[in-house]
Amino acid sequence: MDPNHDPRVFFAAERTLLAWVRTGIGVIGLGFVVARFGLFLHLVQGESPSSHSYSPSSLLGVLFILLGSLGIGVSLVQFRRFVRTLPESDVPRNYFGGATVIYSALVGITGAALAIYLLLQVS
């Protein structure tokens, strides 16, 4: 193996991307719980869930969801930029690195769709 070219650099970058995706999923999950906690509080107080507009917890939850999705998107862009700087010999042959990119993009898009759904669901 040539000491100037090491495919482990590519895999380290991919692991970093996936760590950011995991973090983004965690922030999206926290946002969903926060958004739904406001609904729970209204039900505990005996109010009808449709009798309120945007509660602070709903807006904060949607903000967390968008923050998680944005984090995934930014990490994906950084990963793509970094991989373009690698020499061809650092990228493993016959390895489809696009699966990681596609998965990350789908998770980020799904998070953004969840935020839009929660915003539209609250009357």
Average pLDDT metric: 88
Rg calculated over all Cα atoms = 20 Å
Structural class category: mainly alpha
Strand content: under 5%
Question: What can be said about the biggest beta sheet?
Answer: none
- Please report the total strand number as a whole number: 0
Poorly predicted regions are none
Helix content: over 70%
Kindly describe this structure.
This protein is mainly α and 123 residues long. The chain has one domain. Helices cover 74% and strands 0% of the residues. It has 3 helices and no strands. Helix 1 runs antiparallel to helix 2 and helix 2 (56-85) packs antiparallel against helix 3 (98-121). The longest helix has 37 residues, at 8-44. It is rod-shaped. The mean pLDDT is 88.
What keyword list fits this structure?
123 residues, mainly alpha, 3 helices, 74% helix, rod-shaped
Concise account of the structure shown:
This protein has helices at residues 8-44, 56-85, 98-121.
